[in-house]
Design goal:
Blueprint: E1 3-8, H1 14-25, E2 28-31, H2 32-40, H3 46-54, H4 57-60, H5 64-82, E3 87-90, H6 94-97, E4 104-110, H7 113-124, H8 128-150, E5 162-165, H9 171-184, H10 192-213, E6 223-227, E7 230-237, H11 239-251, E8 258-260, E9 264-266
Parallel strand pairs: 1-3, 1-4, 2-3, 4-5, 7-8, 7-9
Antiparallel strand pairs: 6-7
Helix pairs in contact: 1-9, 2-5, 3-5, 5-10, 7-8
């Protein structure tokens, strides 16, 4: 198995499950904070990155392109963090940011509101309606965020390989079930092909991030595909100067052998 992503609502036990899986499988456990720190090492504000990840659309609308830049940085940091495999990631939309990479087991965990409220009251020291309002607000922001950025419903079970409900089972039982699945299912083995897919995703994501960081090209929004060092870049640029700079940024990365810019179209207008 290469990567397990754990998606959950706030105070649904996702971190506990991720730590249990990592311990039993001998994997690294990686949370959002680790990826944020890696992304912020590029020289951007940690708080601005966090806002781009957590704030709902009515906030993001005020800096739409900046949001694109920060998410490109976060995706690159996440892909690089997990590309060596044997990782359990719990955090924002890992199952969506790693889409296209093979052997990623996408887990969602849900819990009854009563259990979640008890955890909120214990950890945040808030009670009653205030605790319920907090959960509803955080869930709604996450729901809007996922719909806004990816066009999918956060709760849609089709987005996951397995969904577990903690109403009648506990975290240890769910952990044991997933461990057994990982160990028995050949479709989740970390084959050389799966490793290559993660490496391709990491390279493509890093090119997008570096283009977003480059002062000459920071205003662009591009799509990048990578396969065995062969890179294809799609999007629009203003003139050949920007096109040349995108190519220079891409070729500067180790592992890039060719860059195809046929689908990077010069535009006459900004």
């Amino acid at each position: 198995m290469s990567v397990i992503t754990v998606s959950r609502g706030s105070f649904s036990g996702g971190k506990t499950l991720a730590e249990c899986l990592a311990d039993r499988l001998g994997y690294r456990c990686v949370g959002r904070e680790t990826v944020l720190e890696r992304a912020a090492a590029s020289g951007v504000s940690l708080q601005d990155l966090l806002d781009a990840l957590l704030k709902p659309p009515n906030f993001l609308d005020r800096f739409t392109h900046t949001r694109y830049q920060y998410l490109a940085l976060f995706q690159a940091a996440l892909a690089e963090e997990v590309q060596s495999g044997e990782v359990v990631y719990h955090g924002n939309a890992g199952h969506l940011m790693l889409k296209g990479a093979g052997a990623v087991l996408r887990v969602r965990i849900v819990a009854p509101v009563e259990k979640r409220l008890a955890m909120v009251e214990e950890r945040l020291n808030v009670r009653g309606k205030a605790a319920l309002d907090y959960l509803e607000r955080v869930d709604e922001e996450r729901r809007k965020w996922t719909r806004y950025l990816y066009g999918v419903a956060w709760e849609d079970p089709v987005q996951y390989d397995v969904v577990y409900n903690l109403e009648n089972v506990n975290t240890e039982q769910v952990c044991g079930s997933i461990v057994a699945l990982v160990r028995s299912c050949t479709c989740f083995k970390f084959t050389p092909e799966c490793r290559a897919e993660l490496e391709n995703l990491a390279l493509a994501s890093r090119i997008r991030a570096n283009v977003a960081l480059n002062p000459t090209t920071s205003h662009l929004e591009i799509d990048v595909e990578a396969k065995a060092g062969q890179v294809t870049i799609k999007g629009k640029v203003i003139g050949t100067g920007e096109r040349d700079e995108v190519e220079r940024v891409a070729r500067a990365l180790p592992g890039v052998s060719t860059v195809n810019l046929d689908a990077l179209i010069p535009s006459l207008h900004p």
